[in-house]
Amino acid sequence: MKFVIGYFVFQILLLIVILAITHHTDKNSRKAFLQPNEVPEGFEKTSETFIDTKTKKTIYVYYNRLTGKRIYVEH
Length: 75
Description:
The protein is of the alpha+beta class. It is built from one helix and three strands; from the N terminus they run αβββ.
């Protein structure tokens, strides 16, 4: 009986660890999008867009040709 209880406790702890690692590595859970008036100079709007799953808002991708950096702007 102790083995069965130990097995279930181990499974629950393993699930908690996996969820914690997933939350920590999930970039979308921490991503803050810029507003249209906050776009730095040198960035051009691309044709890429997507819908943010949390806010359900349209996100546009801006690209800087000189640095190769991409930023995400909420509209």
